[in-house]
C-alpha cells in the first residue's frame, strides 16, 4: 500500500491502517445487524428464555427453603412490604405535623404583624398628640391668664383667630383674643422616621 | 505480579494484531485491578424514605439562596454525579456556592416491585423536594435531571410546579419516537416488557445491561484499548476504571415502573402528546412555566439530540437549549464536564436567580 507522502509504510503504520479499516467495517456490520428484525427477534427470545430460567431457579429455591421450614424470599418480601407501609404512614403523619407547623408559623406571623401595626398606629397617635401639645403651648398667654370661670377657648382652625366663647355667667365680660394661634411661633413637632414595611411572603 | 501471557508474543509479531494484543491486555487489567472508591464528597443525609435518601452537600464560599436538587436516572447509582474529585458535579456545584442536594434512589428489592411512576414522582420525589426546601429554608428549588431522571423531573415540574424554581434537563428523552437505537430495541412488536420482568417483579440488571452495551457495540471493544493506554499512568487508570464502575454497576428497575414507563414512553410516545396519565393526573409539559434549560449531546448513543430537544418547545415558559459536542457520560465526568458543563449550569442558575 502506497503512503500518500510517497514513503513505504512501516509495519506499525500498516497495522494501524488494517485495524482502522477493520473497526470501520465492524461498525457498519453492527449497524446492519442491529436493525435486522431477525436479530431483534432473537434478542427478544433470548431475553425471554433468560427470564424464564431465572423464574424456574427462584421457584426451585423457594420450594427447597419451604421444605426445610426456613423463611423463603416471599416471607421476607412480605415483612419488608409491611415495614414500607408503616414507614409511609409515619411519613404521612410527619407531613401533617409539618403542615400544622407551617400553619402555626403563618398564624404567628399574622399575629405579630397585627401587633406591629397596632403599635405603629399608637406611635402615630402619640406623635400627633405631641404636635397638638406643642401648638397649644404656643399660646400660653391665653390659657395661663384665664381665671376660673373665664371663657372656654375653642379650638380654631389654623390661621383663624381664636375666639372666646361666652361664659355660662353672662355677667362676666367676654374676652376676645385677636391673635391667631397659627400665627404664633410653634415648637416644631419631632420628625417621624419613615417606616420600613416588611414584605409579606 | 501479572502472569505472562503466552499469546502476547504471537499477537505482537503480526501487524494489525498488536491491537488485539492491546485489547487482551486491557481485558486483563479490567479483570484484575481493583475499582477505585467513588462518591467521596462529604455530605449528610437529610431525608430517607423506602430505599431513597437525599444527600446534602454544603456550599462553600458565599452561599446562594436557592437549593439545587440533582435527580439521576433510576437505573444508575447516585454516585455517578460524584464520581471522583475533580470530576464530580456535586462537588463543583457546592464549590460554586449552590446548596446541593442529591437524590439517591437506592436499589429496589422484590418488595418494591409494585412501585410505579406515580409512586416515584408523587411520593418519593415530591416529599424529597419538600424536605429539601425545608432544610434550605427556601420556598422552591432548582431541579436538575439527568437522563431518565431528567424525564422524571420534567414530569414532576408539570404535575407539581409549586416548589420548582427552574428545570435543567440533561440528555433527558421526551420525544421517544426519536429515541434512536434503544427505541428500536424496545419497540412494540419487538419487545414485550412483561417478558423482561423476572419472577421477583424486577427487571434485572442482566437484562438491561446487554441492551445498553448493544447501543455502542464497538465501544465494548475500544474501551479495552483505552484501559490499556491508561495503564501506564495510575491517575489516568483510576479515572478510566471509575468510569467503568458507572457502566458496570446498574440498578434493577421495579417491574411496575418498567411496564408503565416503557409502554407509555418508548412504545406509545405519550409524554409529548400529553396523554400520559399518572395516578389520574394528565402530564402536560405545557404546564411548566418556570425557566427550562435543555442540554443534549451530539455523541450520545442513549438519548439522541432529537429525543431531548423537543422538551424546550413543549414547555409553557421560557426555555433555552444547548448542544454539546460530547457523549452521554462524558458530559458529566469527561473533560467537558469541569471545562464546559459545570460552569454552564452555574451561569444558568445565576441568570435565573441573580
Helix and strand layout, with pairings?
The complex is a heterodimer of chains A (201) and B (354).
Chain A (H helix, E strand, L loop, with lengths): L10 H25 L1 H31 L5 H65 L2 H6 L56
Chain B lengths: L7 H6 L4 H15 L11 E6 L2 E6 L10 E4 L10 E3 L2 E2 H7 L4 E5 L12 H20 L4 E6 L1 H12 L4 E7 L9 H6 L7 H4 L5 E2 L1 H11 L3 H12 L3 H15 L4 E2 H13 L2 H4 L3 E2 L2 E2 L9 E8 L5 H4 L1 H5 L4 E9 L2 H4 L2 H17 L2
Parallel strand pairs in B: 3-6, 3-7, 7-8, 8-13, 13-14
Antiparallel strand pairs in B: 1-2, 2-6, 4-5, 9-10, 11-12
Helix pairs in contact in B: 2-9, 4-5, 9-10
Describe this structure in words.
- The complex is a heterodimer of chains A (201) and B (354).
- Chain A is built from four helices and no strands.
- Among the domains of chain A are: 63 residues; 69 residues.
- In chain B, helix 2 packs across helix 9 and helix 9 packs antiparallel against helix 10.
- The chains are: A mainly alpha (201), B alpha/beta (354).
- Chains A and B meet through helix 1, helix 2 and helix 3 of A and helix 4, helix 6 and helix 8 of B.
Brief sketch in words of this structure:
The complex is a heterodimer of chains A (201) and B (354). Chain A has 201 residues and is an all-alpha fold.
